[in-house]
Each structure stands twice: as structure tokens, then as C-alpha cells.
Amino acid sequence: MFKKILIANRGEIACRVIKTARRMGIKTVAVYSEADKDALHVSLADEAVCIGAAPSKESYLVMDKIIAACKETGAEAVHPGYGFLSENEAFSKRLEEEGIVFIGPKHPSVAAMGDKIASKKLATAAKVNVIPGYNDAIASPEQAVGIARDIGYPVMIKASAGGGGKGLRVAWNDQEAHEGFASCKTEAKNAFGDDRVFIEKFVESPRHIEIQVLGDAHGNCLYLHERECSIQRRHQKVIEEAPSPFLDEKMRKAMGEQAVALARAVNYQSAGTVEFVVDGKTRDFYFLEMNTRLQVEHPVTECITGLDLVELMIRVAAGEKLPFKQADLKLDGWAMECRINAEDPFRGFLPSTGRLVKFLPPAEAAGQVRVDTGVYEGGEISMYYDSMIAKLIVHGPTRETAIARMRDALNGFVIRGVASNIAFQAALMQHPRFVSGNFNTGLIAEEYPQGFDASMVPHDDPAMLVAVAAAMHRQYLARNATISGQMPGHEYRPGTDFVVRLEDGTDHEVSVAAADGGWDVRFGGEIYAIRSGWQFGQPLYQGTLNGEPFCMQVERRGLKYRLFHWGTQADLMVMSARAAHLQALMPKKAPPDMSKFLLSPMPGLLTHVAVAPGQEVKAGEVLAKIEAMKMENVLKAERDCVVEALLAKPGESLSVDQPIIGFR
Fold this sequence. Notes:
- This protein is α+β, with helices and mostly antiparallel strands.
- The chain folds into 6 domains: 4-103, Rossmann fold; 105-130 and 208-222 and 244-332, D-amino Acid Aminotransferase, Chain A, domain 1 (2-Layer Sandwich); 132-201, 2-Layer Sandwich (Dna Ligase, domain 1); 333-455, D-amino Acid Aminotransferase, Chain A, domain 1 (2-Layer Sandwich); 462-585, Glycoprotein, Type 4 Pilin; 597-663, CATH 2.40.50.100.
- Helix content is 28%, strand content 33%.
- The chain contains 17 helices and 39 strands.
- An 8-stranded antiparallel β-sheet has the order 14-13-10-11-12-15-22-20. An 8-stranded antiparallel β-barrel has the order 24-25-26-27-28-29-30-31. A 5-stranded parallel β-sheet has the order 3-2-1-4-5, with helices on both faces.
- β10 (206-215) and β11 form a beta hairpin.
- The longest helix is centred in the last third of the chain and has 24 residues, at 462-485.
- It starts with a strand and ends with a strand.
């Protein structure tokens, strides 16, 4: 067994590998960019080596620097994690030439399966079902349009070296095929250093189901059941679960055997994933791609099998034989994973960067709740890397139990300082289509065609939010009264009657009375008995409401209380009746008119400005491009206009709502 390994990655996956290596008695080496010098994975490892500037192309993607770090520290092997160099044939081969073990498949397997064009040809030869398409690199947007017409719209434009939703576009017409080709090439070049793209038929109403495979150097190859990955946004997975609610044992076996046949065809030796697109109506399945690495969603497979995939990868790389056969594998219960990302679902899921002022994940519990993360409270979420903050994983005996545990875990996951998608994940967890298991990859686009906002998740009991906000406000006033009572001449007695104003502007009169261990709130003819040991300033308000346990997140902003509960985000204002009357009389100040400016919708790097002062622009024309968290975002004109001035230059780092272009 290795004595020391280097992890050629960052964030949560680097921390994940370090934990398993430590349990196995293996020392670890972390590598980091200048932006990651204070990152969690750096502090967890036994040693750490700086490998360059913040951009990944100057650090995490530079093979020479990683190999030099191995030699400097004496690391015998490299675990690549996912992303970066994990599916780079040249990296795997270079390590082998330098006498360093790659903890992953051999480089011919990486070459064969890491290239989507080559892998589809191999899959056909191995008698694996494949999607109709054009399986060679496309040279120009004009050729892309011609091929798309021949295949028939809609089509999927894909980067040959792609992954993680990058270098991927669905085109429904000639214009989208032309523009999608250019965007895919740019994204693929930036993310993978390979700008080849191809086109295949887009299967409508599809499910995305993948099979985890595992092979060793002794001829053993098997499948570890499936993962359902159909809940996606912009082709990026949002929720994963294992097993799939769509598969029966017969279909599971058929897909598993095809996945193993493909792995055997390339002498696969490590953990890998064969992804399939499944027609939700006919139940036909087609090979999509093979990921020759550990997947982001591997924890759900670990939960239902009881295996540690990182440990098995390390043992296989060290030459050991798999300690079990296909018949030995069991399927235990149900597991789910939510990707907690730094993005704002209330602003079109735009990336969010900055300092984690508060980071309080739910408590982990063996066999029930697991949190994989690479961040900590006070750390920075950088614009240079992907948006993942953490992976929240739950496990239970049934799908219904897993959903209930995930809802509870999301409800108690506190993140402040940057926006997160927790509210959206919580909303999905209670969406009827998700709960039923009857969904496809289009669920999010179909159910939220205009984006997501809090009004889409009306609370089951708005009166509960009113009562809790009133109780919290009364508790805050009681604290003030206690403080003022310690100052002679400044005694203060808090009132008991208040007005709670909801976001829709409606006012609700409440009465709050102290009770043993909490408060009794009278509202709408009902009494809400709230019992809680909550202290003002804590992010979670927990206790019992009419004898039933509850937990909700809370932020206080002046007289406003922002409550998060079951995916609902509600802003409530609590005040006296006199204050409510005065508020209603105050004139409303109109916001400044910014309609004549193109504003940056997110923090990011301005990579391209497509117009010049004095230029006439038509609605739909490209104005600028911004790159953030490894994704290219194209900004287009909303109406016909004339450019007045350019207010930002390519290469400039932009903040949210920063003006880029002025119009007249």
C-alpha cells in the first residue's frame, strides 16, 4: 500500500479523499493555488504545495507543477478527484512515465472513454445501445447547422472532452445551433483545453440514469447499481438519488451488464460511471458517455452499498483484487444528495461569491445525514472555480424516509454571506412530481419556465410564520427591557400587541403573552403556543409549536424578520399599530432608472464586448460575455438601441449590477 499520495484537486473532493487516506494510514499532500492558500483541504492534508496563480490554467491544470510537487514531497501516487486533470490521458501517461501511480484507470482507458466521440464508436462495437448522431469533430458553425438539419431538431451540441454541464447546448433551430456551436467550443476550450464538439439527437422527455462500475487488474469488473440524476438545471445535476424510482430489477440488470461490457472493452481498472439517457415512455436506454473518474454523486452509491469508493480506487491502483463479486452486492435502502451551490435562485441562479459569514451545516448522523464540504465559516467563495459549497447526503430505509430527512436537513442548513440554492432544493423536495418519482430531465425547465421565486412556494401555514415572527419580536423587546431595566431612569416595558406586515402589504394584528418556556401568540382566533430556548442572534429558531417540534432559519434586518421554512423565504415586518399607521403614510421613493444601462447580472470576468460606441443594436444581438465559476454567460440586447458608451473593459472583474454599457 502507498505511504503517501497527492490529491490533484481542491474543495470538497480533496477533503473527501484526505479523510479516507487518513483512515487507511496513508499520508496526504494537498496542492493549492494562491486563491486557495487558506482553503480547508490545505489545512487537512499532512503537507501542502502551492502550484500557481488563481486561474486553474495556471495551477490545477498544469501537469508539470503537480508532478514537481509529487517529486518534492515523495508522493507515490496521485488521486485526481473529478474535473481538472481527472480525465486527461496525457496526465495519466505522464505520471506513469515518471513512476508515479495514477489512482484511476490506465491511460488507454482514459483516452478511449474520456473522448466522447471515440467512446461512442467503442460502445457501438461493444454492442451497447447508442444515440443517433454525428460522431466526429465539427469544424464550423455552418457545418453544425447542416448536421443538425440532417439529424432533425432538437439536437444536443456537446464538447468531446466535456463534463459537468460545460460545453453543452440544446438547439431547437438553426440560430441556436450556430450560436450553441460557438459557445460550446469556447467553454470546452476554457474548461478542458479541448474545443472539439459533436452533435447527437436530443431525446425528449428523457431520464438520466447512470451505472457505477468498478474494475481491477485481475479481470474482475462489476456494477454497483444505478443512480438517478434526472433533476438537472442547464444540464447540471441538482439532485441525485440511488436507486432510481424508474428502474425495476430486470432493467437494472440489463443496464448494468451493458455498462460492464463497455468497461471490459477498454480493460477498465478503477471506479467509473457509464451514463445512459432513458426514454421515459418506451423505457429504451442509450449510452451517453463514460466518466473515467469518481463522480460528484458517488456518496449515494456508498450509502446503499456500504462501500468506500475512494478506498477501493486506492486499493485497485495499488494492485489489490476486488474483495467481492457481483452476487455479493446488496442494495440497502435509499439515498439522496443535494448539491448546495453558491448561486442565487431568486436572481436566475446567478453565481454568488464572497465570504461565508455563517456556515452551519446540519449535524451529521451515521447512516442518516452526511455533509461533504471543502469550506468553513469565514472562508471565501471564489469566482475562479465552480459554485459548489457542499454536498448534503441522506440515507433511509425508503424513498419517503430519505425525502423527509433531506427536507429536515435542508431546513437546518444555514449559509449567510453568499446566496445559496437551499431554498430551491427544499422546494424541489416537496414538489409533487419529484415526490411521485415520475419526472424527467425537463422537470425544472417545465415547472419553473420563468425562473424561481419565493411566491412559487407558498407556505402551508402562513399564520405560523406570522406567529413565529411576532414571538421573536416580543422576545427581542423583552431582552431590551432587561438591559434597560439595569439602567436607573430607563425602565422600559415592552408592549404585547403588534401588527405583522406580510410581503403582500397586508397587516395582521397579533397579541403576544409570556408563558412558561416561551410565548402564547393570539392570531386569527387561534392561539399558537411557541416554546423555545432560542436566544436572539442565533440563526436557527427551534422549539415546539402547539406541542409539535419545528425548526426554521431566521435573519433580523431592522424591524424585518426573514424566515426560511420548507423552501419558503418570507420577509415579515413586526411593529406597533402606530408605527404601522405611520409607515402607510410615508411616501415611497422610486428607485433610480437603470433601463439605459447593461448591468452585470453576477460577479465575474468580462471576457468580451461585442459592440462599440455609436453602434445600432437590434434586440437579441450579443452585447457582451461574462465568465464566472467556469461558465460563459452571454448577455444580449433586450430591445433595439444605440450604444452611448462602454463603461467596462474586457479583462475587468465585475460586481453585481455594475454598468457595462450605456445606451441612448
